[in-house]
Amino acid sequence: MEEYAVIGKRIPRVDGRVKVTGEAKYAADFGLPGMLWCKMLRSPHAHAKIREIDTSRAERLPGVKAVCTGRDFGGWTWGWMPKTRDEPPVAVDRVRYLAEAVAAVAAVDEETAEEATELIKVEYEELPGVFDPEEAMKEGAPKVHDYVENNVSWDFHMDFGDVEKGFGEADLVREERFETGRVTHGYLEPPAAVANWDSSGITIWAAKQSPYFVYRHLAACFRMPLNKVRVIQPFVGGGFGGTKNDSLAGDFCSVLLSKMTGKPVKFVYTMEEELMVARRRHNMIVFNKMGMKKDGAITAMHSRVIADGGAYTAIGPLTMYLTGCMSTLPYKLPNFKHDAYRVFTNNPVGAAMRGHGVTHTRFAAEIQMDMMAEELGIDPVSVRLKNAVTAPHETINKVTVHSCGLKEGLETLAATGKWKERGKEQEKGPIRRGIGISGTAYLGGARQRGHQSCAAIVRLCEDGTVDYLTGATDCGQGSDTVLVQIVAEELGLRIEDVDIKRVDTAFTPCDAGSYGSRVTVLAGEAAQKAARDVKEQLARFAAEKWEANPEDIVFKNCQVFVKGSPEKAMPFEQLAKIACYSGSGTVILGKGYSDYGIDVLDFDRGEGNAGTSYSFTSQLSEVEVDVETGFVKCTDMVIAHDCGRPLNPINVEAQNQGAAVQGLGQTLYERFVMKQGKTLNPTLLDYKMPLSMDIPKIEVIDIITDDPTGPYGAKEASEGAIVSAPPSIVSAIHDATGVWIKELPVTPERLVMALKRKGETK
Questions:
Q1: 518, 460, 453, 516: which is closest to 487 by C-alpha?
Q2: What is the domain range of residue 738?
Q3: Average of per-residue pLDDT across 7-28
Q4: What's the predicted TM-score (pTM) here?
């Protein structure tokens, strides 16, 4: 195996120093001379007609410079697909969820803008709302949108093999109902932006993990050519999808108000606004039917999903696609049927979140496997090893797996002392200990419709240093460091010799964004190609000097030499000067782009590869359960993760730990408490994310598989552990108590009630 100089090394993040010193600037830190503040007026109703809006009193308030309403956007709407573009920047004739924006104000300061919103008079006609997706699908339910029947915003169906035949061949068939909870993304930086409209067009400094999304949305909304829209990306304080991966009312209103006033306009959502109105993970009900033979082999599975999509479609079609297309991994599934329904309600909008779509159906399938294995007397590891895929493998819906470390991961966990101790007699007292396991898969290098390519430019400076330009976004996951490692490795340089620039749509190459674990795989491919382009150009100068073949020129350890002739060598810096000063001077630019197609992906049928490669995660979780109070504490996690090859082991560990903690939160603690569309816990005090004292000891074990499709053998390394955490924890709770919990989160109340039904407590 080739020895790399920087790839695979535990290198600190390239943005670490500016972040810890406070030098890094986030969207809320930006300000421009003469800047105004934008604040929103939000609806007090979850569903109502807007009869009239009177903004005159707000406009007369000293310090107010402009007021806009939904009608000022000319009827423009947006969404993921042309036929589902149903969301206006600001409500026009009807509000469809509580606290939806109905107007916006630009004023000289934040306090004046806030005061002005209270002076806007809106006449509403309240309408009956619908807040439960199953109720919303019934005939006669209040309609959230008139253009669909039974409030179904999107449905998706898969049917491969013959599930009825598969159920007929099974020795055990079982059907269960599962439900996952409404949760937030948990980034600590709320949405913020500064917008400026001038003679050059639109410029916006926005906290976005996919800046080219808002770039296109703004161009379409304001009927501007793309070269007149500029998105400059500050540092991003966390993403994970949701509002950071989409546009929102503040983006559009700040731009429009800047146009109206001729001044820059800034908005910063409060955390309460973020928790009240921003995109959140879909709450899903999953009906899962599975067939299994006596030896544990799965013969068929039929899943039916009902998702609470909230008031607008947004990226919902992709969510529903992912609930099904990834269900055929990580286990062999010869017959599979899937019916998914995304339903409009008068709740806040459901959208993408880390582990997008897969967390729900994988949780259901994993727990059902455990339930059936227990009924058949089969060990949880054995049933997984019986069904685990191995590479190469093609699923029944034509998902192709080139590398897979699932079996090795499961066997690694089974060999741990913790798993071997499982099932030992419990000590007397209220505290019970349990250990659970799960095996999951997630896609990397996401492929979907629309613009998906990404590119890179590497510019050689005459002193031998390098500028690297990419449109790919580091929203906290550390991808900037990995991409710099790739450029440095290809050119034989040190990390400090490569400088990465912030995303600016006026200068950096186009990139689809940070979602679907695509940055390392696809932006990494582009970076690798761009660096190789520079290397090939430089090699020609070295080859001419030494009368050698360009293919024999080696770049390593800041030196350039001829392969097999170490005496023919020079520092990289010297070769850079020779190249840049040759003749009248040479400019050396390298360019590269990801090169993959989506023609083999049938989105309507759910057939083909939704990603370029697939990670596999095996997870062991240990819990302590107080059977008297129902309180659960997760004490230990062991994650055996196949990400191909870890390009930066520190990043891989951190990403797995962070994802597992997010999964822990949605399993035991987190949920939006809702009543008639109103979020009753819109503060971080009441919305119970895990605190430092709640975090278990987490060990990450790298399962090396060297995937042939990724740069240096890499695959995704962040989303798998948010999928694997919930089923492993719930399985551990069952091991401790003997009860199965099928609804998340596992609150103390829910667990105590289950124990009472079992007869464990009084």
A1: 460
A2: 280-447+601-758
A3: 95
A4: 0.96
